[in-house]
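Expect chain and fold; thus:
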Amino acid sequence: MKTIGILGGMSVASTQTYYRELARLTRERLGGLHSPELLIRSVDFDGIAKLQASSDWDTAGQVLNAEALALERGGAQLLLLATNTMHKVADKIVDGLSIPLLHIADATAEKISAQGLKRPGLMATKFTMEQSFYTDRLRARDLIPVVPDAEDRDETHRIIYEELCRDVINERSRTIFESIAERLVEEGCDCLILGCTEVGMLLSAENVSVPVFDTTLVHCEVALSAAMA
């Protein structure tokens, strides 16, 4: 099995899910006491979040590029960036890197297309919902992404940063997310992308009326398949 490098900490809550899910999938596929070969670099999200807020994406990309190179030097053979939003700087992160970065949007788009779905709703940070770096990759695979209205985007973003990234589960926020998801369905969405690695803390197939694609779980499935190839 190849060694998977995980560039995480953005946030810690979702990075824990990556570790847990990769371990679960490995047990399912290999049985016994098998566990995945992982290297994890968890950065301090406070600094990255401040760079996001100030739109200093160049510096953020440089910081994460240095960490990605360190993971490769440490023995990682493929790379996961355990955050949707920071795929905005994916091109900077892979500068000088000789191992592949498995892009979370590409993995998700491929799974949606394989199920014959076309019009995904997207719930994520405002950066991911409002900028083109993510939705363009979905459109490149003939999908038609739909984002919530401005008020719902603001509330989704707030809950992600003020609660989920701090590992806080609020049942009122779950209800808000469920309502936002249902409004997307009413607009004609045939599935829902949980396009922030923390959104799955509140939403799943159990409380959404259309197929759900949790990007964290999809990313882990694709990574393990690549590691075992």
Observations:
- The chain has two domains: 4-103+217-228, 104-214.
